[in-house]
Amino acid sequence: MRVLIVEDDTNTADFIVKGLRQAGYTPDLASDGKDGLFLALEQPYDAIVLDRMLPGLDGLTLLRTLRGAGHNTPVLLLSALGEVDDRVEGLRAGGDDYLVKPFALVELQARLEVLLRRGEVKMADAVLRLGDLELDRLTRNARRGGRVIDLQPREYQLLEYLMLHAGQVVTRTMLLEGVWDYHFDPQTNVIDVHISRLRAKIDKGAERPLLHTVRGAGYCLRDAGTAADPT
Would residue 228 count as lying in a domain? Predict the structure, then answer.
């Protein structure tokens, strides 16, 4: 697996490169944003580890440029900025995950493994369809009836999971583990908020809803039927 590391701190960069190489990865290193963007655009990588604060071109600008160019390589953001607003900004810029410095190498590797598993999309499964809803897993584009749906990174992951389980009742626990990678319930309304936002986007202006709430059980993405109670 080829991984691009964009990190200007020499000690941190050496630490990551050495650890990933020992774990069997093939790491390339860029020490500033401009070089990182060039490599990311010119070379095929399975994942990118991207520092947020970089000379020449900051990490978020690099990330937005990469996404704007149509590149969907999984990106793990690194930053000493660990407040909720900082993490949200990074994810909304197109990041797939966010790791706060200082960090343990074993956690970085575990997060990379998760991103790489998500990125292993077979061509036969690249486009998911349900009725007039379509999700291209290679370009990360969603459409319904020809209308482009603008999805934030977490909304994309949620829709992908629901489409992979179309017709099934998906529980809160399944979503926490499959989308948020939580193996415990943080007792927040994060799922409800994202479901509400996703429903507004995919069912907006449609003759029939696709995303349904099954009372006392969870959620179901389906094209027809009466078993679920849409809300």
Answer: no
